[in-house]
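Quick one before lunch.
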Amino acid sequence: MADTSYIGRFAPSPTGPLHAGSLVAAMASYLDAKAHGGQWLIRIEDIDEARTVSGAAESILQCLAAFGMRWDGEVVWQSRRKALYQAAFERLGKHAYPCGCSRREIADSRVGVASDGAAVYPGTCRNGLAAGKTARAFRLRVPDASAPDECIAFDDRWGGSVTQHLASEVGDFVLKRADGFWAYQLAVVVDDAAQGVTHVVRGADLLDSTARQIYLQRLLKLPTPHYLHVPVVINANGEKLSKQTGAQALAPAQPHTALIAAAQFLGLPIRRMESVDDFWRQAIAGWADRFSIPA
Ligand code: GLU
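Model of the glutamic acid complex:
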């Protein structure tokens, strides 16, 4: 049944052209939106200007269009929305605090390693900037280990129930970086809410970020969308496929092999297609079936 309230999105960081890994994330979010009869939005996450590659966003959009993935509405660019992030940051009030610690100091503190491999912040500046330090970044104070809301739990539509203990598994995390850019965690929460996103479908490399995002949604009194994290495509060395790990750019003029490979990766047994439109008909039906989404 068409769910007109469904709003999904694909939110690529424009660090390079679309490749087999990012196509899987794009495809999964597109299929979920189409299977629900909902909208599919595109947001270019160019907030990290140091990593943004000129022309990459346009090349991603061109490839999506050539592969038959039509988005709804105007493309949204994070680099043009900084005032919204500033406003949300101000609403966080005392939950945010300035931090003067360097990466090395945090790594040397050896409080623990977060599930994403980063060092857990030891809390040095939690109760005021430590002597002799100047503010470099701003962090969000996560609940104390003994607080009632210390654990964040959610149901992932792909992998099932997930629980994360923010204090021990993540620590106080960055909202505004030492280089002055807004952190992904804040920008994504503000934008998902501002765009009315009801369903987030993305790669499992972001599963670990979800509890942080839910905690921020609670503090900012924003709704929590449904989440579905698809497995990430890895290369022969077991690394997530990305431009840095040698992913090949997809050719807009050759959609067939790339679309079939991405669908098969997602567990949709599509072997042949008459046309790009025929591919999407099969893939949407297969996805709806797999996630029991009524037609
Ligand atoms: N911009 C992120 C990426 O390209 C995705 C963020 C998200 O889907 O929440 O990996």
